[in-house]
Specification:
Jelly Rolls; disordered N terminus; mainly beta; 44% strand; six-stranded mixed β-sheet
């Protein structure tokens, strides 16, 4: 395992785990859907039973929570006996959870056949099956009615998307436990997938486990790391590519992988929190067993044309940082007032910085003994970067004066006070106007 710090609290409930990537190591949490509900991240996931699995064996569904995407707490284990299934069942496949009108709705797959839904007043239950039967039945469409995802459009309406190879979508009624319409087939132009890398496999053009998210006027339909874009939730969608390629991997994370390669089995979800986007997805590089999967999270950055840049797959993950490495400014945990801008070299910088905008980087580890911080930035005028502990309301640690230079890029070094080994640092930008500077990265010395 890579840099895994595991704390197990035995003989007590709930269970607490602390980790990087994978976020919940050695537990088999997979097919992750992460939703931000009431200021907290909730992970609903399938659960591979054992590292000795020789097939997909999943006997329950999990719900975890986190305040920072690093420390995860098991909130609830949903047993098939609590659902209309009514008995032990070892094909508890993908799941999703959303909140609407003060109630929580937990959707679950009955293997690769049908979809049910539970309702609760809180994420930790109690949960009840309001229908006593599937919401999506196995004879509803020509595809299989499982591996669902819930999507909300810009008008606040909710939809359910599901299927394998061909995807179907239907609007949900306000009660979230019935369909407002018959499911419609989603058209995808020129799709690719883990079994269809060249576009010639028309029997298996995509994959199972569809997901849709909305960003900047577009709907993004994804199946693992492959995705397509449309300006309407129903489509048609235009295939764009994969966010995982060979250049995505840090050493030790590119293998072992699935039979058809590293793009297979990347079931997951996209989500936004604190003005940052993420992709949560399955990985087997640390287990070596496709039937005992982990959940990884990576940052997501959007190009100016709306496409997504390649993600980075490593052991650091998100929500924490290594003070012995250069930290990219666009990989912040929290931001106010800024904009990510694509560079000519396919990277990103922070742009459109105005007075009192800020960036927060939590859980920076390895700071003890570091005496200086170096900013890589292009100032447009005189700017002061105020460095606070935890938040703009925290303790002021240092102020760094940055002035325009003749060169197009310059590194600015400032002194730091003695700090703990792990700190959360907040950079507040102070200046007279808008467009104060472009901010690329920072490092410690």
């Amino acid at each position: 395992m890579n840099k895994l710090f595991i704390l197990l609290l035995f003989f007590t409930t709930p269970i607490l785990l602390f980790a990087t990537n994978p976020i919940i190591p050695n537990k088999g949490a997979n097919d992750p859907h992460i939703r931000i509900i009431d200021g907290k991240a909730y992970l609903s996931a399938s659960h591979d039973k054992s590292s000795d699995n020789k097939r997909f064996t999943m006997e329950d569904w999990w719900l975890w929570s986190s305040d920072d995407l690093v420390n995860w707490k098991l909130e609830y284990t949903l047993k098939p006996e609590e659902t209309y299934i009514g008995k032990p069942f070892d094909q508890c496949w993908a799941t999703d959870i959303v909140k609407r009108n003060g109630k929580f709705y937990w959707y679950f797959s009955e293997g690769n056949k049908q979809t049910g839904v539970m309702v609760g007043d809180s994420p930790i239950g109690p949960w009840k099956d309001p229908l006593g039967k599937p919401l999506l039945t196995s004879d509803m469409t020509p595809t299989h009615e499982y591996d669902m995802g819930i999507v909300q459009d810009e008008a606040g309406e909710y939809y359910i998307v599901f299927g394998v190879w061909d995807y179907y979508i239907a609007k949900l009624n306000e009660d979230m436990i019935s369909l407002a319409e018959n499911p419609r087939k989603i058209e995808i132009n020129n799709p690719r997938g883990p079994y269809n890398l060249d576009g010639k496999n028309h029997e298996k053009p995509t994959d199972d486990k569809p997901f849709i998210h909305f960003y900047n006027g577009n709907f993004y339909l994804s199946w693992g790391c492959f995705y397509a874009i449309a300006d309407n939730v129903y489509g048609p969608y235009n295939y764009k590519g994969s966010i995982i390629e060979k250049g995505s991997f840090a050493p030790g994370y590119d293998a072992p992988t699935w039979p058809t390669g590293f793009r297979q089995g990347r079931h997951g979800s996209f989500f936004q929190w604190h003005n940052q986007w993420y992709f949560a997805y399955c990985d087997i590089s640390q287990t070596g067993n496709r039937y005992f999967r982990d959940t990884f999270i990576s940052y997501v950055h959007y190009k100016e044309n709306g496409e997504m840049a390649l993600i980075r797959i490593d052991g650091i993950g998100v929500g924490e940082y290594d003070a012995n490495q250069t930290i990219q400014a666009e990989d912040y945990f929290k931001a106010f007032g800024i904009h990510k801008k694509e560079t000519e070299t396919n990277g990103f910088v922070i742009d459109n910085i105005s007075n009192n905008d800020f960036l927060t980087f939590q859980n920076i580890k390895g700071l003890q003994g570091k005496k200086k911080i170096e900013f890589s930035a292009i100032p447009n005028e005189e700017v002061t970067i105020q460095i606070y502990q935890n938040s703009p309301e925290g303790k002021l640690l240092a102020s760094c004066e940055i002035a325009p230079a003749d060169t197009t890029k310059k590194n600015f070094v400032c002194d730091l006070p003695a700090m703990s080994d792990t700190e959360t640092l907040c950079f507040v930008f102070v200046g007279k106007d808008k467009q104060l500077m472009q901010f690329g990265s920072f490092s410690f010395k």
